[in-house]
C-alpha cells in the first residue's frame, strides 16, 4: 500500500459534525491526513462505539492545524445506514464523520485491502500512503505517525 495514491471524494459523502448534517465540506485539507476507514465488513457498531478513543489524535490535529487532519470515513451496509446516522449524531462527535452510503471509497481505491488492519493509514500532501496501521493498537505505529509529521 505504501506509495499508492488514495482518492478522497469527500463531496460525494454525507458529512456529520457534532449534532449537524453538513451539506458541503468547505475545508482545506492539511498536508498530512490520517484516514480511519470503517467498511461494511467491519463491525459498524463496534467501530462507532470507539470513536472517542481517537480524541487524543483529534486534539493533536487541532494543535497542528494546517499540518494534520483526521478523516473518518464510514461505509455501512444499506440496511445499517439509518442506525449509523443516529449513532454518529448521538455521539455528538466534534470532528467530521463522512458517511459513504454508496460505497464509493472502496470502489475507487482498489489498493485498500478488505482486511480491517489496513483501514487506518497516513497520507502525504499528494494523498499517497506513507504509513499503514492503527496507532490506537500499536505504540510503534503511534511513534511512527508522530515522527512522520516532524
Give structural notes.
With 150 residues, the chain is of the alpha/beta class. The protein is 28% helix and 21% strand. The protein has 5 helices and 7 strands. The protein has helices at residues 44-49, 55-63, 81-91, 104-108, 139-149, and strands spanning 14-17, 20-22, 32-38, 68-74, 97-99, 120-123, 129-132. Strands 2-1-5-4-3-6-7 form a 7-stranded mixed beta sheet, with helices on one face. α3 links the parallel β4 (68-74) and β5. The protein is globular and about 40 Å long. The two termini are 22 Å apart. The model has no long low-confidence stretch (mean pLDDT 84).
Binned, the helix content reads 25-40%
Over the alpha carbons, how many angstroms does the gyration radius reach?
A: 14 Å
Query: What's the rounded overall pLDDT mean?
Result: 84
Number of strands: 7
- Side-by-side strand order of the widest sheet: 2-1-5-4-3-6-7
By secondary-structure content and strand pairing, the structural class works out as alpha/beta
The termini sit apart by 22 Å
As a percent range, the share of strand residues is: 15-25%
Indicate the overall shape: globular
Order of helices and strands: EEEHHEHEHEEH
**Tally the helices: what do you get?**
5
Largest sheet: 7 strands, mixed
Poorly predicted regions are none
